[in-house]
Amino acid sequence: MTSGPLDFLTDSLAKLEDDRLVMDWPTLEAPQEPRTVLNGRPVINLAANNYLGLANHPAVKLAAAKALDRYGAGVASARNACGNLALHDELEARLAAFKGVEAVLVTQTGYVANVGIFPALLGEHDAIVSDALNHASLIDSARMSRAKVHVYAHGEVADAEAKLKEAKASGARRIALVTDGIFSMDGDIAPLPGLIKAAEAAGAFAYVDDAHAVGVIGKGGRGTVDHFGLEGRVAIQVGTLSKALGIMGGYIAGSRDLIRWLEQRHRAQFFSASTLTPADTAAALKALDIVEAEPERIARLWARADYFREGLKSLGYDTGVSETPLIPVIIGDAAKTKALRNALMEAGVFAVAVTYPIVAEDASRLRTIVSSEHTEADLDEVLDAFARCGKSVGAI
User: Fold this and answer.
1) At what angle do helices 157-169 and 192-202 cross, to 10 degrees?
2) Which active-site residues does the annotation give?
3) What are the pLDDT digits (tens) for 251-268?
C-alpha cells in the first residue's frame, strides 16, 4: 500500500481497536421482524426501532409496490426544483392532522429535518438552551447556527430555567429551548410541562424532537406534546417515519409560517437534491392508516415492554430510568457489555452494545427495543438468554 495523506487513519483505527471502541455493522438478511436473520444467524431482534411492527406489514408493502409501479423508483430532484409529488402533499396534510398542527414539511430523514432548522431560524445573536442528552442531530444543528448554546443538566427543569434566564440576561435576540421527547439512550420522557412553562416565562420558543415518541405515547401515538396536553404551546415538533412507522424519512410540524419559511431556507432539505421516494411516501401513508385504525398495537407494545422490563429487573439488571419500550440494560464496563452482546448473539438474541463516546465511559449498556409484535414466548426466550449469558460473562 502506498503512503498518502490519510495514513493517520491506520493509527487512529488501531487505537479504536485497542480501546475496544470499533463498531462492526451487522448484515440483515431477512425482513425487519421480531425474529429475523442477522449475519447468517436466526435471532430474536431487540435492536430495531420497529415499535409497531410496520416495517414488513403486508399492506404497507403493497402500498409501496403500487406507488413504485405508478411513479417509478425516485423523483431524482429536490422538491423545490421539480421533484414534488401529490403524494408528498398528501402525506404532509395527513401528518399535520395527526400532529394537530397547521402544517408539516416532509424531509429525507429525521437527521436532515433537525440539522436544517436552527441554521434557518437562528444566528450568532441568538441562544439555544439544550438538554445535555439531546440527539446528535440537534447538537449539530445548534453548532451550525452559530447561536450561543446553553446546556442544562439532563431532565432538570430548574437548571433549564436557570440557563434560560442566563440566555435572556445575555441579551439574546431569540431563544430556543430544545429537548428530545423520549431520549434515545435511556428511554425516559422529557419533563415537558415544566420545560414549556420555563420557556414561556423567558419568552423562548419550544422545540421537541419526537422521533421515539410518535406511535408510542400520546393519544393514538401522537407524541409527547399530546401525551402532556401541551397542544399549541410547542412551536416546533420533529419526527421520523423510520421508527414506529417503519419506513424512511422525517418531518417538521408547526405553524404555516414556520413551514413556509423552512421551504425557503432549510438548506439540508433542498441541497440533499432529492426527496422521499414514491414508495416510501405511499408506505408512510398506509402506516399512518394502520396506526390510526389499530390502537391495540400501541397497547400491546406497552404491555410487552412492561413485561420485559420487569423480567430484566428480576434477573438483577439495571434498566436505568427507562419508562418506555426503549429499555437500556446498563452494565457499565465496556468490555463486559460487548462480551454480553456476543454471548447473547451466540444464544440467538440480538441487542446493540452502546459504549463511549455515545454514552459516558462508565455507562456502557445494551440498548433494547421491544416491539408490539414480540410475543411473551419470544421475551421469555430472551430473558432466559439474559440469565444464562449474564452469569457467564459476569454481568449479573
Assistant:
1) 20
2) 184, 212, 243
3) 999 999 999 999 999 999
What percentage of the chain reaches a pLDDT higher than 90? 89
pLDDT of residue 81: 83
Shortest CA distance to 325 belongs to which of 345, 308, 346, 349?
Answer: 308
Q: What are the CA-CA distances from residue 335 to residues 17, 21, 266, 318 (Å)?
A: 12, 9, 42, 17
Q: In angstroms, rounded to a whole number, what is the distance separating the alpha carbons of residues 160 and 192?
A: 11
Confirm if 365 and 330 have CB atoms less than 8 A apart. Answer: yes
CA distances from 207 to 61, 90, 115, 135, 180 (A): 33, 24, 13, 13, 9
How does pLDDT run across 58-94, given as a tens digit for each residue? 999 999 999 999 999 998 888 888 888 999 999 999 9
**pTM of the entire structure?**
0.95
Shortest CA distance to 340 belongs to which of 311, 320, 367?
Answer: 367
Report which of 356, 368, 360, 392 is spatially closest to residue 23, judged by C-alpha positions.
356
- In which residue are the cell numbers 414506529 written? 244
